[in-house]
Amino acid sequence: MHPRYAAIFGIENLELNQHFRPQSIVEQFPDQTMTAPQVTLELNQKLLADLNRAIAPEQIKHVVQSDTLAWHKGQLSLPNQQLSADNKRALWALMSIHLDNL
pTM (2 decimals)? Predict the structure, then answer.
């Protein structure tokens, strides 16, 4: 959890030892996330604005369809345009990983 949110909710921010922290999705599957033909997706403007606000100063420049959920160099890869509740949870978890590294 990001320290900012931990402070809001009054939760002690715990971090995994680097040895146990999983690699990011892009590091696990570098060839699969960026080599397939990419279909541009139109993400809901409210969701895109919320994501960009949450990851500031970074910004999502492109949203493309991919088999895996990933974010790399301003490009967000999603399984499809309509996200399920599980996909949304995974998306916010992915964004929080990147926020922790800012």
Answer: 0.59
pLDDT digits (tens, 9 = 90+) for 61-88: 999 998 888 888 889 999 988 888 888 8
Sign of the alpha-carbon torsion through 32, 77, 73, 17:
negative
Please give the Cα distance from 80 to 65 (Å, whole number).
6
DSSP string for residues in 33-90:
HHSS--EE----HHHHHHHHHHTTTS---EEEE-SS-EEETTEEEES-SS--HHHHHH
| Residue among 23, 31, 1 at smallest CA distance from 13 | 1
